[in-house]
Design brief:
single chain; about 260 residues; seven-stranded antiparallel sheet; about 5% helix
Length: about 260
Amino acid sequence: MSLLSREIELYDFSIGLHHWRYTDAGREAIVEGQRYAPVALTRGRIAQSAEEAKNTLEITAPLDLPLLNLFRPVPPGLRMRLDLKRVRVRDGLVRLGWTGHVADLDETHTVAKLRCQSLAAAVETLGLRRSWQSNCPLVLYSQGPGLCNADPDAHAVPAVLNDATGYTVAAAIFDTFEDGHFEGGVLQWTGALGIERRFIVGHAGATLRLLTPTALAPGARVVALPGCDRTMGSRGCAKFANTLNYGGQPTLKGLRNPFGSDPVF
């Protein structure tokens, strides 16, 4: 879009304090003290639907856009935000046109398409609800009154990886714990954009299997936090010496469900 047009658009991508700013204008734009590099970006229509899941925004970008390198070979574990702004050239009036997060990247031989999800759609999921149940429903390591309150620092296991293949990582220290010790836990490390995390879904010997891939390489320094099986047993609260904060009702085991098809009353 030419600077002689009525409006130009600004695309501000960010992760934490890191920003990648672009404009569809024909030359660099300086707005509110920030520089926006000229890039051949095009976008789809901004949808306004009562169903937030349908209010996605697709942005087409050239394959050599530096921003896309963050998604290669695997996407970042941190959420990327997009603020789309419109600037009226005549008087410099800035207004926010759309805000959301980058959901995924689809590349072809010629262009890349970023699919973005609105902020409302990103949070339009059912949260964890407390219920009368035998297993603990609390978020592991959550802190506060009535929460788990297991101390992550007391159970963190620093490690130096000797192998990493996307979905799996390995370190000798993991083999000193019984198999399954880290299942349901988290692997974290400090990357260029901040602290990145991956959920651990498997642990056997020195190897951890991750829910989503990483670009970690041998020699990387990480921290593994053990998981919990949501019981009071040796792989649950007892492992963390945290039975006083157990959020479930273990005495319910074996009792009939009063709301089931077999009436109790």
